[in-house]
Amino acid sequence: MDLESDGASLSVRRIADPPGLRVGGEVDTTTAGEFGEALAAVVRCCDGDVRVDLAGVTFIDLAGLRVLADTAAELGPGRALVLGPMAGHVEHLIRLVGWDTAPGLRLAG
Description:
The protein is of the alpha/beta class.
């Protein structure tokens, strides 16, 4: 799925092994809704952890980060939203806001 809104461009591709998404482009207030819907669809259909590859993300704002944190919090016991690989600026922002230790969210090492 490729989305374009107000000049922002987002690419979201489903991956099978491990189950999850590969995300590229800009995740911001204009694309966060669509990103959240794609992520929710993967979470619903898969058991266990869900991987989100953020290596291609060129920009992410608080709305995009909130989608990740909220989704992780709703996964329930024994499941995690595993982020990685990811661009350095994305990891830095996640750590800066303190969400690297959010419930259900795990940064891939």
